[in-house]
């Protein structure tokens, strides 16, 4: 498995992974019926952003991450990032490898901290993974996410210094 910076040519490999996560509606505050172009702009088009792919030995994209400033201008030294691993590749360490890579890349780009604004409280494996990588939960915003199965649940704000 290789992790590298994505190019626009990687989009056909990224889209099935992103589409699955978006259609489930359980982990990101995005409309479940978002179009491919909306998702592409959201993942690939953020100002100052870098997109990464985790590529299997056979060349297939199995996971992706995106890194960007959490806020513009005076807040741009704090990074934000998103992560998605194909469900068929989950539990093999890709998420951990991607996050480790992105944390190092963010520090290398000069970011001084990383903040996650909206980790759904039911996404316990992700929360545990981020905690194991040094993130702490700063607060949980109550009933901030309308989960398709569990209804109104919290959103965790998570943070670590780089
Ligand atoms: C969260 C996500 C990126 C994790 O990716 P992953 O490749 O499955 O994660 P890893 O294989 O690196 O596993 C990370 C840890 O979680 C645990 N884990 C992951 N999925 C698990 C599951 N279904 N059951 C039990 N443990 C699980 C692993 O055991 C591992 O712990 P360890 O490293 O201490 O052994 C992936 O599940 C995903 O894309 N989810 C949908 C989108 C999402 O939630 N993104 C994050 C938003 S904050």
UniProtKB/TrEMBL annotation:
Spell out the InterPro entries in the cross-references: Acyl_CoA_acyltransferase, GNAT_dom, Mito_N-acetyltransferase
Q: Which SUPFAM superfamilies match?
A: Acyl-CoA N-acyltransferases (Nat)
Residues annotated as signal peptide? none
Its domain of life reads: Bacteria
Every N-acetyltransferase domain range: 1-158
Give the protein's recorded name: L-amino acid N-acyltransferase YncA
This protein's species is Paeniglutamicibacter psychrophenolicus
